[in-house]
Structures
1.
Amino acid sequence: EDQVTQSPEALRLQEGESSSLNCSYTVSGLRGLFWYRQDPGKGPEFLFTLYSAGEEKEKERLKATLTKKESFLHITAPKPEDSATYLCAVPSGGYQKVTFGTGTKLQVIP
Amino acid sequence: NAGVTQTPKFRVLKTGQSMTLLCAQDMNHEYMYWYRQDPGMGLRLIHYSVGEGTTAKGEVPDGYNVSRLKKQNFLLGLESAAPSQTSVYFCASTYSGELFFGEGSRLTVL
């Protein structure tokens, strides 16, 4: 059974304090790993797709990396507007099922 | 483009009542999904569809039914609502990559 585990559940950072979020996964035949951002009362918003170990992608203060067992979302010098819940997900059976982790709730304090 | 549109956005039901949530996408996507999101549980897959006229069970299908009569629409039905079905429901679609989400439908069952 495919599993996605995210840690920590919650993270509180001071503005400018860099950190990383973790997503570990167990899936047969990885077809990609997604990162999403979710703001309160909204649907998840796509950030990145990573397909192979060693791949990295960046967007503003966010950088996602992938190994054979886990992915990291690095946040460099975060701002209060980066506060959100960050979700990772993996597809299985083609795209018949997409399994999500429970997310990391990030709060960035001014 | 509207993307993924869910209706209604809010609904309050009494135990035993029935209702249907509608999801419409204008991106010509083959795959569509219904998730529920509860605090601490993350996004859990209820049902999904890999194309017009097809549906399949996800992780938590009990108490729900779905139909995909037209490619652009995916309906989620509750035949006899229960308080345990109080949740936020998200519809999503994809061609073969990242999922696009609707804004969510908040359902309360009293």
2.
Amino acid sequence: GAGVSQSPRYKVAKRGQDVALRCDPISGHVSLFWYQQALGQGPEFLTYFQNEAQLDKSGLPSDRFFAERPEGSVSTLKIQRTQQEDSAVYLCASSLVAGTGDSPLHFGNGTRLTVT
Amino acid sequence: AQSVTQPDIHITVSEGASLELRCNYSYGATPYLFWYVQSPGQGLQLLLKYFSGDTLVQGIKGFEAEFKRSQSSFNLRKPSVHWSDAAEYFCAVGAGGTYKYIFGTGTRLKVLA
């Protein structure tokens, strides 16, 4: 596709359930980012991939969060034993080159996760 | 450490009026600066970016922004706002040589008919 695709668009999970969020970046984009956007806030960095290598996961809130990008394209963000504080919009973004701070990000429409 | 401040949480303007959204950043060197727009239920779309050179940059949808090093600011402007500009606007800074992007908390723009 022409843009970054995320699925599902909406996810409702009961507290304690595991969820998996998918991101299809723009083809050929080297860098992939996951951001968490709480209501009324800006995106907060979660993790960064350069191709298949996860170079930074410092933003992941806890060890319940796990991300992978095994073949350097599609990425999955998994949240285990979801808690209410995990409710947010999860945004995926990709950029063409390896992250150098000057490459614009292309965002997907996000997955809105609601934990009840 | 980098930081981005958008002092205005909400701004309301009348259609046809001019607009200025404020952004202040903190970074030791010349930053890479971006403005993104987010419509409800959508991802962020890049409006414009500044890396170097001319401090007045033009973007899509008639937006422009001016980099002022002395004020550590990168304010977004539009001469005449359209109702379709109602959205949330995010300023972001990228640190040169790294992949780190820091976003402000956003300014929600409301446009009155």
